[in-house]
Amino acid sequence: MVSEHEVRPAVRSSAQVLVASNRGPVSYTLETDGSLDAKRGGGGLVSGLSAVEDKLWVCAALGDGDREAVRRGVGEPGVRMLDIDAGVHADAYNGIANSVLWFVHHMLYQTPLEPVFDAEFRRQWASFESYNRAFAEALAEEAGQGAAVLVQDYHLALVPGMLRELRPDLRIGHFSHTPWAPVDYFRLLPDDIAEQLLHGILGADRAAFLTRRWADAFIGCCTRILGGTGRTRIGVHGLGADAGFLRRRAHEADVDERMAALREQTGPGRRTIVRVDRTELSKNIVRGLFAYRELLDERPEWRERVVHVAFAYPSRQDLAVYRDYTAEVRRVADEINAVHGTEGWTPVVLHVKDDFARSLAAYRLADVALVNPIRDGMNLVAKEIPVVSDHGCALVLSREAGAYEELGSDAVVVNPYDVSATAAALHEALTMADDERAERTERLAAAAVALPPQQWFLDQLDALRREA
Ligand code: F6P
Fold it and tell me: Of which family is this protein a member (predicted)?
């Protein structure tokens, strides 16, 4: 399945620590002059892995630039990018991972009409199997004797089982960065597919999750569908924020510049309700806007005195449902501005172009952070904002976010479907006394950094080596 163009290392790397994920730590763009521009990504896994020396990251080529890089033999040391056939990858990533598995674990279906498991689904599932097999084969080829292999996420749920057959000597871990569906919802999947997915992950020595709740849901599925989890151990590792990096980065000059620009946009003296998300269906951005609209409708005293700063960065735009959702976010924001806006006041400041420095600027100046996902594996924004906040920030947090397990006691907690309750929570957060807000922010920040990314990764590695 991996193309014959792919350049493989002449000597087997025999790495002792391997990580596998769909999206890798680097991506390439093909420029008009034919050159390749490399962009390095961030995130918990990248920073977690920096703690380990002898490692290999196996990932998929995601776009034309990545494929061209593989063909030209351009690459980063310690990264092997798999040039899986583009059609197979699209079926596996967009068709199965994003449109089925993501929907199941985040409970996103509108069930009267979806999901539909038909012949087209079976065709895409065959691609999903091939794509997982390509990873399993590459890992089997690269891993040194007895190496530890850490497989990431729902995209690669079949890899542990496949790899176990190819290389019984390896220590295999699987980590889910998403929630896990409760068993009744998981059983929307065809029975054989549900079993295959569970068996796939149970091919690992350890299956780990971000919270106890998601781990218990997985155990519940295994127990009800398969009769148990077999020899696989279950772990919980709640990824925290990277305080050192964030605090340093948040005080660089470009962030200060963006703070000044944002203050200009919000107007002097106004309170800010900040949200920063990918425009992801599970993030519940539209209901967040509805709640803000209800706040302005029901409590006119806030008009002209508050601004909702909403950053909704593009995500999965190959899928029509994501494009439609993005359009709906814009439409509702525009509508609020049209109904409530005045000459000197724009009630919603919406930005859709990804800009990390601007996100940090918004984190620093937020009076209230709105994190109201329908369901979320963890939600690092909820952890990052209290860490970099300049003068304390009240957190309105969904009880369906993984972060709720660690942050719930100092947040204003909401049911993400209850728009009126969210509007009331925004009011409560906006009126929180300064000293209480400061105290809560301090406790939120302490909880948020309890397990920094490097320790998070090393703990998993240790447990895998110890328990396997
Ligand atoms: O945030 C959960 C997560 O599963 C991450 O682990 C993963 O990187 C991401 O979602 C997948 O998003 P994308 O489809 O943009 O790669």
Answer: Belongs to the glycosyltransferase 20 family.
